[in-house]
Amino acid sequence: MRYFIKSMEHSIWPISAVHLIPVSTAKNGVSSKSRKRIMPDPVTEPPVTDPIYEALLYCNIPSVAERSMEGHAPHHFKLVSVHVFIRHGDRYPLYVIPKTKRPEIDCTLVANRKPYHPKLEAFVSHMSKGSGASFESPLNSLPLYPNHPLCEMGELTQTGVVQHLQNGQLLRDIYLKKHKLLPNDWSADQLYLETTGKSRTLQSGLALLYGFLPDFDWKKIYFRHQPSALFCSGSCYCPVRNQYLEKEQRRQYLLRLKNSQLEKTYGEMAKIVDVPTKQLRAANPIDSMLCHFCHNVSFPCTRNGCVDMEHFKVIKTHQIEDERERREKKLYLGYSLLGAHPILNQTIGRMQRATEGRKEELFALYSAHDVTLSPVLSALGLSEARFPRFAARLIFELWQDREKPSEHSVRILYNGVDVTFHTSFCQDHHKHSPKPMCPLENLVRFVKRDMFVALGGSGTNYYDACHREGF
User: Fold this and answer.
1) What is the pTM of this model?
2) Superkingdom of the source (predicted)?
3) φ, ψ for residue 378 (rounded to 5)?
4) Which residue spans of the chain are classified as CATH 3.40.50.1240?
């Protein structure tokens, strides 16, 4: 029997936060306000887990400017390099609910439609002229911005573009205007840009860069292609990681079997759309339902009735329960430690070169997926972090102490929140240090040694841990 991992590229786990507003979608100039509204007004965080509140956080509809803690450090610290991991922005579903009409979302970029960003028209104009640079194959064949009157499967939406224009603007104000991370005459080798081969990740990366860079010069923009969502480059073969994943998927499957309300809900929905329950479940209805929810479009109806908010709440609640059990059983942690090691190893290598005074790759951007960020968050020990929302950002900052130039420290931020002292490798450091950051050595030791210690066994390097016998 095969089991399927629940990710938002295939399903979801619980989710993350920012201010939200209801948003109208428009087709042929008709506002969705005339349709039945399904999005409640957001409120302050409820005392108990609320599936609707969690879903609103996941949508991450841009509204007021976000407060963030990026770039905060004592005045005698100098910012040396920044490493940004993003999830792509809001996208059209990857799955459809069988025998229902697909939600009609417009994927052209329109200035008079919310959400909006002041750089939106300039972004479209710049992208429509085509790239003056060549990207690593096969990225050259991808469109540079979304441009379909009706979204195609998995396509970035206007909301997704605006989310990352906003991320880029925020990071520009902090890292370029305040900290002067890049010189005025910055060059291509001072950026490291990498993306998977999906249009939504390339376009999200371009939108963030357009908001971030003071001068978006195609001659200085070069994206590398990453075939694996884990960004593991030449280190992807890891049998033990896959064994952890199979055990985790089995845990998910058994938890679902125990949830009679979930099975009843799938049965009701299957009757509405007139397909076997098994087929409906395989079609992953939550992916499409979240699109309806985030874009304020009514759930689908047939002559047998309507999919409704109660169905949505049951599935969402199960995902939140799944997240809780996932933390307790720790099978996903084993998968994450091995899945995140290659990208973390690359990052500390880049940091160590920066400490030696090298001026290349001062700003690194990985444009990725939920299945990229989620293992990294888990591996770092950030068990309380919400599942990566649309346009989530995880940032590693490298700092130098001007009073002790040989000392370098790191800060880690998730969606603008400083989580440095929530990581497993630095949770005790602040008890005996006044610095609001963590020694770089702690992170290096964690990646080079402690990640393997946490897995048990005798492996002291990535290859041995991946090929451990008798797991």
Assistant:
1) 0.90
2) Eukaryota
3) -65, -45
4) 62-229+331-467
Q: Which residue has tokens 């800060």? A: 411
Alpha carbon of 363 to those of 40, 198, 371, 386, 437: distances in Å? 39, 22, 22, 25, 19
418 catalytic, yes or no? no
**74 preceded by a cis bond (ω within 30 of 0):** no
pLDDT digits (tens, 9 = 90+) for 211-260: 999 999 999 999 999 999 999 999 999 999 999 999 999 999 999 999 99
CATH class for the region spanning 62-229+331-467? alpha beta
Q: What is the pLDDT of residues 147-179, one digit of tens each?
A: 999 999 999 999 999 999 999 999 999 999 999
**Given the residues 90, 106, 287, 370, the one annotated as active site:** 370
> What is the torsion angle, in degrees rounded to the nearest 10, for the CA atoms of residue 227, residue 229, residue 233 and residue 236?
-110
Catalytic-role residue among 88, 164, 179, 292 = 88
